[in-house]
Amino acid sequence: MGLTGKLMEVFLHPEEAVPLGKMYLAAKRAKKLPKSPTWAFCYDMLNRVSRSFAIVIQQLPEELRNAVCVFYLVLRGLDTVEDDMALNTKKKLRMLETFCDDIYDRTFVVKDCGEGNYKTLMLEFNNVTEAFLSLDQGYQDVIYDITKRMGHGMRDFIPKEVETVEDYNLYCHYVAGLVGIGLSKLFAACELESPKFASKMDGLANDMGLFLQKTNIIRDYLEDIEELPAPRMFWPREIWGEYAEELDEFKDPENREEAVCCLNHMITDALNHATKSLDYMNELQHKWVFRFCAIPQVMAIATLAACYNNGKVFEGVVKIRRGKTARIVTGLNSYEDLVHAFYGYAGDIAAAVQPAVDPSAKETLQACKDIQDKCEEMVRSVAGKGGLSSQQGSFGSKIALFLLALGYASYAFSLGGVRESLGVSADAGDPMIDLIQKIIAVLCVLGLSVVLCLE
After folding, report:
1. 209 vs 146: CA distance, rounded Å
2. Which residues are catalytically annotated?
3. Is the dihedral of CA 90, 94, 97, 100 positive or negative?
């Protein structure tokens, strides 16, 4: 999107201007690299391959931040091996099995694997292994265990297709559910969350991972099916087989009605993990750990709401507007924010359901009701929560002051007929006083903009 398009988005959604500014500053802070060449490489690659997720990782306390950064890059490396369809199958199977042991080798690199930033990551993976070996043993053990289990699970799915919903859930467990389980163990290891996260939260953590992974699989239909040299698809035949003979038939506009019905069925399946995701986040106590977990989950349900009943999924990748993403990333600070977001997006999906033409409409409405019921349950219990601080009231007051400053600037610069609407001629008044008013207005708007961006 060009500059004109971005400005038009801000013009049409002025409430997103401040969150966009805050996100811009957060992205700049995330690009400030450590002095150590090893860690500089790791955080630079994190910025390159994880997009907005890097901003959330950077906000974690340092010890956990470094462990999560390495964990992410190790699994991104493993995922790059799995995703590279040009890689010899025999070599790929061997690498997926041994990757967990290779991360202990300070000289470990992978040539001719991945593209773009992912290729760079693999060519200089020795920096990641160096960073991994500098972590405390407890963190190393978690990362090794999850990498081993994920690699072996990926290996098992290389020669087979996803036929049943059970296959689908198992694959998503290997590539994403295990990530949630590993993160839970890291949260416990650094003692920012209770010891139960080390072993008693695995089921809920798995659902969190499945919710994210299924959202990505749904959204990326066209990108995945057109991948060269060969597509890899994870939509289960058990679902799509109800609507088509072959999965690629959904690309044909003539099959759009069936494609959208299948899409809605897939989204309904993903929504069934949302309440467990909420249960997991309801147990978090540390504010930055909560934000780290909650932001991707809200992005997921927002993406599902954007994809639901939307035939454009079969024409390209449906993305959340940049400004909406910024509002989620910068504005999600409390349980109340989380509940409000999930409740609202579930309502958006429910409002788009068409029972007369959609075979899965009843199940979709029930899934949305379950999410909203869970949100209401959390609202009733949130009064007793501790450990998360929210500055919503203060931020709201600053927004009000900012809007007043914009109104004063409109008056000072005679914009939009403001003066005339107040019975004042646009040309009336002392030129010197007018100049002073303009200077004050500019200073007020700029000052409050900085305050809000730093909020």
Report:
1. 13
2. 171, 219, 232, 292
3. negative
